[in-house]
Write a structure and sequence with these properties.
CATH architecture of the largest domain: Alpha-Beta Barrel
Shape: globular
Largest sheet: 7 strands, parallel
Number of strands: 18
Number of helices: 25
CATH topology of the largest domain: TIM Barrel
Helix content: 25-40%
Radius of gyration: 28 Å
CATH superfamily of the largest domain: Metal-dependent hydrolases
Structural class: alpha/beta
DNA sequence: GCCGTTTTCGGCCCGACTGTTTTCAGTCG
């Protein structure tokens, strides 16, 4: 079976290759959009493909793309894609990933027979790259610089690692005088499971008389310990590469891949260190006036697709939206051009008039405008809204939409209010390990930590016997452990300690303890740990069997994936969700940033089907409790409310539900 | 390639920045 993610990947590659061959940009964009749509789909595409009408009902999918989707589901690929793969050298895709190089430049290189990064390095070394159109000294130097860091800069970074980096920057910069507000934006603020680069917004007072303030903030930003390369440094925008630590908590660091650079090329790039460079992440800093903070925050939080929808909505309402604010569209001044000796302004109609763009209007004697254009405020145009996100959304007739929901998945059609689950709503942890297996805390230490964080319930769920590496408990040890949990529970006030187990789901779907022992436990979290490369059919059967077991409360990290590391199982998720509904089993969102499993789109599908979610930290040590924010972010990306999450229920309701399976 | 409170054709979001140019193309988010 072809998964939605695989279909999206095929479409994405097709769009990229189309772009390189110079296809119409809107056609390219339509394919990129379709890929994202498929990726975010909650139903299985393989099932939808039976009926073409259900495909064209998806936003952005027309008749032609529907045919392509059917073809991909049936064959795993596209005939057109295979043709392009033959035509377009694979190495061009590597060149395209170099920062600063887009489809037009790469196409020009292809025409000059530069078809991989090694050839590009040679063309830089022998000066032939300079002969290409629009390739001057500076452009070539920039490409050379980017190439030097290309091998080491990770394309994506785990949410938890990126959040820690952002925290470092926010702490350092918020301490500077004159910083009115500071806030990470981008995919980090949206809680995406992996992060490309980190955006940080800083607001300074509009009426500041300190002309060097922004410059000083940027200077501090670029000189923080850990910054290994400054890409750009200015008073409005700065970008740096920041060194990432290799450690992944209880997962071992990724082994360094040896450089494949040939000796000859190393010689021509001799000024760069030859040893494998440290993995890094790009961090962008934007500095802007406080009066634009709301609209800028929306702009830089994205997603890009969500922003496009907002701007379309703005235009339809007679406004135009940009990072400086929401403006009446009739005031729009777009481009300065000396064509025909005057200034050209593209005017769109005001509200109530025709929806067609009126076209270019030439002003013969417009006063000279400074270049680059000042923000509209400084040209005497007042924004209708800009200081806060709430007021911009309100002007557009929308409730404030949480950042996690800004993915162009229909959020603009929701009436609101958006009362999504928050970290403060979570009052129970139902998946935690002690020193009895591979945890670092005793039962009481674990309970005290949970109490400190305001929880009413903590479940002790050590590993079962098959997880021998993790110190899984044989039945006799488990019975003694249950007794120890009961005793600890009698000694502590203010929190309930439950006796549970994280029971292995064995390869065939059976559980790692017999039914009699399982019945003695207050909480059973059943999780797959081994045989994580099973084929989808076997994985589906395995998990369905565990879900239908009458003693199971929660399926822990259902796919066993490790982000950027291991794909894990690919079961037929719609079937698992239907079974979870039928047997009243909760599906876990494991909050560790290496897992975030269930992923957001599957959790969304579960909620739509009426399946309960459990947001657990899978604690092994104190700091693991801090990962709750990432599990909650994933749940919020699935539009989960407190009612959807059993950890947010009051104690009596939760305990009654757990007891119903005994 | 998609789409329609006027559209089945002609639109498709917006601005900053950079470098290469003498008025603008490419890239990025």
């Amino acid at each position: 079976m072809v998964s939605n993610a695989e279909v999206a990947k095929v479409l994405e590659e097709f769009a990229t290759l189309l772009e390189l061959t110079g296809a119409d940009g809107f056609r390219v964009n339509a394919h990129h959009r379709a890929a994202r749509g498929v990726e975010g789909l909650t139903q299985s595409l393989a099932a939808l493909a039976e009926d073409k009408a259900s495909l064209t009902a998806i936003d952005g999918i027309g008749p032609k793309l529907a045919d392509k989707l059917v073809e991909i589901v049936r064959t795993g690929t596209l005939a057109e894609l295979e043709t392009l793969r033959v035509r377009v050298p694979a190495g061009l895709l590597d060149i395209l990933r170099v920062p600063g190089l887009g489809p037009k430049s790469v196409k020009a290189m292809w025409d000059a027979n530069i078809t991989n990064t090694d050839a590009l390095k040679r063309a830089i070394a022998d000066g032939s790259l300079l002969k290409l159109p629009r390739m001057g000294e500076k452009a070539v130097a920039k490409i050379k610089d980017s190439l030097a860091f290309f091998d080491s800069s990770a394309t994506r970074t785990h949410l938890g690692k990126a959040a820690a980096v952002a925290h470092t920057f926010v702490t350092a910069i918020s301490a500077l005088p004159g910083v009115a507000r500071i806030q990470p934006a981008g995919s980090l603020r949206r809680g995406k499971e992996t992060i490309g680069d980190i955006d940080i917004l800083v607001a300074i007072a509009d009426d500041t008389t300190d002309r060097d303030l922004a410059t000083r903030i940027a200077a501090r930003f670029c000189s923080l310990p850990g910054v290994i390369h400054v890409i750009a440094q200015g008073s409005g925008k700065s970008s740096v590469l920041y060194a990432l630590e290799g450690g992944l908590g209880r997962w071992k660091p990724t082994p360094q891949v040896a450089s494949t650079k040939s000796a000859e090329l190393t010689a021509s790039f001799g000024s760069q260190p030859a040893a494998p460079r440290q993995p890094s992440i790009q961090v962008d800093l934007r500095i802007l006036p406080e009066s634009s903070f709301g609209s800028a925050l929306m702009y830089f939080t994205g997603s890009k697709e969500h922003n496009v929808r907002l701007r379309e909505r703005s235009l339809a309402m007679g406004y135009t939206l940009n990072e400086w604010g929401l403006f009446p569209v009739s005031e729009r001044t777009v481009k300065v051009s000396k064509k025909a000796g005057g200034f050209k302004a593209k005017l769109a109609p005001a509200s109530g008039s025709t929806n067609k763009v009126a076209g270019d209007v030439i002003y013969a004697d417009s006063p000279a405008l400074p270049a680059p254009l000042l923000p509209p405020q400084d040209r005497g145009v007042k924004p209708l809204a800009s200081a806060s996100e709430e007021e911009v959304f309100a002007m557009l007739g929308l409730p404030w939409i949480p950042p996690e929901a800004r993915e162009d998945r229909g959020e603009l059609n929701e009436a609101g209010p958006w009362d999504l689950v928050t970290v403060a709503d979570i009052r129970a942890e139902l998946h935690a390990h002690t020193t009895a297996s591979d945890g670092l805390l005793s039962i009481l230490e674990l309970a005290e930590e949970a109490l400190r964080r305001g929880f009413h319930t903590i479940a002790v769920t050590d590993h079962s016997q098959s997880s021998s590496i993790a110190g899984g408990l044989k039945p006799d040890r488990l019975r003694a452990h249950i007794a120890a949990v009961r005793e600890a529970n009698s000694k502590i006030n203010g929190i309930t300690i439950l006796a549970g187990s994280e029971v292995d789901i064995l390869t065939d779907g059976s559980l790692d303890y017999d039914d009699k022992l399982l019945a003695e436990l207050d909480v059973v979290v059943a999780s797959p740990h081994a045989a994580l490369s099973q084929d989808p059919a076997a994985a589906t059967a395995r998990l369905l069997r565990a879900i239908s077991h009458p003693r199971v409360h929660i399926i822990g990290h259902p796919t066993g994936r490790l982000l950027l590391r291991r794909a894990g199982l690919s079961p037929d998720m719609p079937r698992l969700i239907a079974a979870a509904k039928e047997h009243d089993v909760a599906l876990e969102i494991n909050s560790h940033w290496m897992r975030l499993d269930l992923r957001d789109t599957h959790a969304r599908a579960a909620i739509l089907a009426g399946v309960k979610l459990a947001i657990n930290c899978d604690d092994h040590e104190r700091s693991d409790f801090d990962n709750l924010q990432f599990g909650v972010a994933t749940a919020r990306r699935a539009w989960a409310t407190p009612a959807d999450c059993i950890n947010a229920w009051p104690a009596e309701k939760l305990h009654r539900w757990l007891q119903s399976k005994r």
